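Hi there. Long-time user, first ticket. I'm pasting a complex I've been working with (about 237 residues overall). I'd like to know whether the download I got is complete or cut off, because the file seemed smaller than I expected. Thanks.
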Amino acid sequence: MTAPTAKDRLIVALDMPTVEEAQRLVAALGDTVSFYKVGLELLFAGGLELARALKAEGKQVFLDMKLLDIGNTVERAVANATEFGLDFLTVHGHDLKTMRAAVAGRGTSKLKLLAVTVLTNLTADDLKQQGTSLAPADLVLRRAQLARESGFDGVIASGQEAGRIRAATGRGFLIVTPGIRLTGSSTDDQERITTPDHAIRAGANYIVVGRPITQADDPRLVAETFINHIREAELPG
Ligand code: C5P
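Hi, the file is complete. Here it is re-exported in full:
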């Protein structure tokens, strides 16, 4: 597989209430953006059809379903998802059982499976509430290792954890990082954020950016800025 270009490493999260708004944004971004994420908000408003249409236009599509259920259900859901011919699909990476079921459901399809480790809006206190005393970074690492063991292609994790994941999993395992912000911009509800430069230098293969682009006055200009940051971070030294 050839290495993705800086442009291909930016995934824009189409977190919008309607397909029409998402289509307007895609049109405004034009050739600048080649990879889109369709998540829960848009899925309930015709997002699957939009995902198919984006694929037909030659874009790459990440379906952010964040699946979590008993193995049998996850396996069959993933098997049906392969029919859409999309690129990435997320499953919560809590345990081997669920992830192995997803791998079985994927079969021989090219769909890449990514494990959600610990959501980037969660802090150590939030994890304590759930009954885990592990620090977010340690839980992320444990789940990344489980994901690798189960046959997943990669993980979703914050840029703060990307370095440790890369060191533990080696090359070839995908690290996709949301919670990305340019220095000085609003963090919204995110907690474990990093800049694009930091995430890429730490070993992330892709960055996921939502609100900084979807809510910008000039989304194309902001997307270009993110791509320039990726390109600069790729330079040696
Ligand atoms: O708007 P913002 O850039 O914060 O959007 C980040 C996107 O990444 C959202 O679509 C969110 O669902 C997703 N995400 C995340 N943290 C994860 C997994 C996915 O923020 N661990």
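A couple of notes from our side: The chain has a mean pLDDT of 95. The beta strands are 10-13, 35-38, 60-67, 88-92, 112-116, 154-156, 174-177, 206-209.
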